[in-house]
Write a structure and sequence with these properties.
- InterPro entries: RlpA (IPR034718), RlpA-like_DPBB (IPR009009), RlpA-like_sf (IPR036908), RplA (IPR012997).
- One of its GO terms (biological process) is peptidoglycan metabolic process.
- It comes from Neoroseomonas lacus.
- Lytic transglycosylase with a strong preference for naked glycan strands that lack stem peptides.
- The structure is a single chain.
- The protein is α/β, with parallel strands linked by helices.
- It folds into two domains: 42 residues; 119 residues, Barwin-like endoglucanases (Beta Barrel), CATH 2.40.40.
- Helix content is 21%, strand content 22%.
- It contains two helices and six strands.
- It has a six-stranded mixed beta barrel with strand order 1-5-2-4-3-6.
- Strand 3 and strand 4 form a beta hairpin.
- The longest helix has 32 residues.
- It starts with 18 loop residues before the first helix and ends in a 6-residue tail after the last strand.
- 26% of the residues are buried.
- About 12% of the residues have low confidence.
């Protein structure tokens, strides 16, 4: 008996790979697919968290000018909060908010972690005294150290577009009924 060579061709003419070769190839393909999915998840999460604050280049001038501080913006019905505010990137236009509606950058949308949807709040920029009212329609912000996210229109009225963030006081002026 002589030396027998290894043949990849089966009796019926089909080519068959050794079992070890197919198993390692499938394992590599699965590993590659998992790495690609994990990379996409990390990139998406990074883009989502960076989209909450935007520089002045991305915001066009709106038609409404800054609103001056005024005592008739409503009396407080809740405890004031002081902290940092940021504003939504225009990339969120049309995306669903936690309340179910779609985000409009020209709206008076405010994101707050705990106030009920529909609550009207007065936001005052502590650096220049400008105040604007808006409605809580979303949850957030999810960036550490921020207390509210504002629509670009509100941010423009508070004159915080250039800086991207501002120290603000948030005061509920009309609490909405909490949904059960």
């Amino acid at each position: 008996m002589g030396f027998q060579s290894f043949s990849l061709q089966a009796r019926d003419g089909r080519v068959a790979l050794p079992r070890a070769a197919t198993a390692s190839r499938a394992g590599r393909m699965r590993t590659t697919a998992l790495r690609a999915a994990a990379s996409c998840a990390v990139i998406s999460l990074s883009a989502l968290t960076m989209g909450c604050a935007q520089s002045a280049e991305g915001i066009a001038d709106g038609s409404s000018g800054p609103v001056t501080a005024s005592p008739d913006l409503g009396r407080a019905v809740g405890d004031p909060q002081v902290g940092t505010a940021s504003y939504y990137s225009r990339r969120f236009t049309g995306r669903r908010m936690a309340s179910g509606g779609r985000f409009d950058p020209a709206s008076d949308t405010i994101a707050h972690r705990t106030l009920p949807f529909g609550t009207i709040v007065r936001v005052t920029n502590l650096q220049n005294g400008l105040s604007v009212t808006g409605t809580v329609q979303d949850r957030g912000p999810w960036s550490r150290g921020r207390i509210v996210d504002l629509s670009p229109r509100i941010a423009q009225n508070l004159d915080m577009i250039r800086s991207g963030v501002a120290q603000v006081e948030v005061v509920p002026v009309e609490l909405a009924e909490a949904a059960e």
